[in-house]
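User: Predict the structure for this protein chain, please.
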Amino acid sequence: MNRKVQALIKLVRPAHYLKNILVFVPAVFSGLLLDQKSFLISMSGFVAFSLVASSIYIVNDIKDRHHDKLHPKKRLRPIAAGTVSVREAVILALCLVSAAGAILCMLHASWLATGLICFYAISNIAYSFGLKNVPIVDVFILSLGFVVRVYFGAAIIGVEVSKWLYLAILAFSFYLSLGKRRNEIIANGSKTRKVNKYYTEAFLDKNMYVCLGLTLMYYSLWSVDPSQKHKLIVFTVPLVILIVMAYSLRVENSDSDGDPVSVVLGNKTLLALMAAYGFIILTLVYL
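Assistant: Here is the predicted structure, written as structure tokens:
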């Protein structure tokens, strides 16, 4: 594989597609994951969302290319490093968006599904062009992206999302986003991100763990809700507690920037716990 192709692959950040697995959450808990039609629709939605997300990463890298050159890690990104030109990046982003649009048309995606993915794109472009410098708003947009993934996944297969599950995902999304800001401040202060001058480590710590507590409470309420079809899911609560504790330990002791993908992929224990959770959930829902 030549250097240019490697740079283009790095530019779209395929490792971050891990976050887009949230598109499958509604199919999993509605019992439709093994339904061939629903699975293919969810998979197509996953691909479409990943393509749109990659195009936004490209827009962000173009916008921040001069600033990224000052960052110890981000300076290695293809555009900042000069291995991919701005023109090449723009063409790639347009191709990705076009491919995502074609997939949505092929799926005959509902207006809700289309609106959600457009909202995700617009809000994240607004984030790249200024909202990322507004305290609290920056964290809110990052967190909202996780929730939109879930609702998009529900919209394309025509199911509803439990209100308790929505609250659990929202609270955990805030926890992840605040953790990212926390580690950025510890590693680089406000040198590499303007908004970090408004935050303190103490503020982020307090709010992180408020959100983490809310996550566990909402997840527990979802698991015991009378409408919950799978009654044994309540027994996954201890495992979820272990997962968030392992994640917190990794964030607290890590020299990473707190990016959720880096945190998860960089810890075998956390990966094993998450795999165990996935296996147990699939067993409880489908057997």
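The chain has two domains: 13-161, 162-287.
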